[in-house]
Amino acid sequence: MTGRIENAVTVHNVSKSYGDVEALRDLSLDFPRGQLTSLLGPSGCGKTTLLKIIAGLLPASSGEVFINGTPVTGPGADRAFVFQDFALMPWATVLRNVAFGLELRGVSRSEREAIAEKYIIEVGLKGFEHSFPHELSGGMRQRVGLARALSVDADVLLMDEPFSAVDEQTRRKFQEDLLGLVQNENKTFLFVTHSIEEAVYVSDQIAILLPRPSRVMEVIRPSGFRDRDVNSIRRDPEYLDIVDRIWASLKSYVE
Amino acid sequence: MSSLILWGLLWEFVGQIELTFFLPPLSAIFSTLMEIGGTKPFIKALQETAHAFSIGTLSAILIGVPTGILMGKSRLIDELLLPWVNLFLSAPLTALVPVLMVLFGFGLKAIIITTTLFAIWIIVLNSRAGVMQINQSLVEMSRSFGASPLAAFTKIYFWAALPEILGGVRIGFIRAVKGVIIGQLLISIVGFGSLFELYASNFLMSHFWAVLIVLFALSFVIAEFLAYLERRVEYYAARR
Ligand SMILES: Nc1ncnc2c1ncn2[C@@H]1O[C@H](COP(=O)(O)OP(=O)(O)OP(=O)(O)O)[C@@H](O)[C@H]1O
Ligand SMILES: [Mg+2]
Description:
The complex is a heterodimer of chains A (255) and B (240).
Chain A: E1 7-18, E2 21-32, E3 36-40, H1 47-55, E4 62-67, E5 70-71, E6 79-82, H2 94-104, H3 109-122, H4 138-151, E7 156-160, H5 168-185, E8 188-193, H6 196-202, E9 205-209, E10 216-220, H7 237-251
Parallel strand pairs in A: 3-8, 3-9, 6-7, 7-8
Antiparallel strand pairs in A: 1-2, 1-4, 4-5, 9-10
Chain B: H1 2-16, H2 26-37, H3 40-73, H4 75-90, H5 97-104, H6 108-132, H7 136-144, H8 149-186, H9 191-201, H10 205-237
Helix pairs in contact in B: 2-10, 3-4, 3-6, 3-8, 3-9, 4-6, 5-6, 6-8, 8-9, 8-10, 9-10
The complex binds adenosine-5'-triphosphate and magnesium ion.
């Protein structure tokens, strides 16, 4: 180890316009491997846009994105997306939904269902394999979305406000689980959220974006409380400090 | 159901008092039905009609559904085809039948094409509507997990549009019944068309009604079956 952090995802001078709307301008940002980076910024500043460009779902107008040093030209097996609205197939069971990423990759049925089963248990949905999405609560549906993303074993997980459609208690539980995932899964997480507290709670690194046309205003790396017990993070002085600091810098953009 | 019985009784009554030769008693119609039901000409007519009908509807579905899905997916294809689909959907297709006769002759082919022509437009339009309301994030989901265009088509678009597709197929089916009978009356007098022609011109009213009832019953049963399929997918129609 040289002490230099290796980046799993590198965004280099990316700009994106939708017709006349300039969403991103010359945005550069690094995402360290094995860590969770949050994107935080005012509504409409281009967080989803950035995530979709990294996912290869949207082309950038200019600039480049690298995954493990390879430029992005489209979606790839090294990335998996967790959707805000879950994006589950309502006609398919939990099992098939979770296995769908593998199904598209041509993994045989027995093999992909065994893998899916493992992640269904991991996200706490054992016993619901043959339920349909409409029979599940919002929180459970997002667990399905998460299990689907985990089961393709991608290096990079892209999460666009994954917890915004679930209730507060579930959300807190998810945040704790997410910390566990970051610790155990050895994956790189890109996490979009609107909640300052959530960002500070789960992140190794927080990128604060400016309003449109968006660039990175500041990157904050909480250092002190990351290794502490998850239950005491919210009382940690550094945690409270950072929350205050972020709010102070974002306040001016909120009417 | 009970209203059906009531109307049946009324029919029987009107038939019994011999108000008009046009309407024999229902019981007489049914006994005629029993009589002709097993006869060779009847079976042959049923087969001819069923043959033209099933090929006609099947082609309407096999061509109509993919066309509709493609229109829903692609702006270009949509703009090219939509005016035609709308035109034919509302056009009086019966007036086109003579043209079809010139183009395709007086045989089975022209009848099948007539049937398809009656059924296909609503199937196209419904499939298109089903695809257009698809949840964009489902499409993005499949792309992000590396779906090929074909996989997206068969695993996402088709299923997402299935409730509308089945609705279209059901209505298309009802129109196809119209198509096949018109074909068998106008193009060449075969199948049920020939029975109608024969019985009506000989004033065999109870025969005429018997065939009509068989036709109604058959199309009702199939339409109900399709409606049942539609209800099977209804659970997700509202939640896409
Ligand atoms: N398909 C599109 N066509 C045109 N403009 C778009 C499109 N998608 C996004 N935009 C615009 O680009 C800007 C950034 O959108 P984006 O969805 O990335 O923001 P966001 O940061 O994710 O917002 P939010 O926090 O509300 O989810 C917005 O001003 C939006 O209006
Ligand atoms: Mg967004």
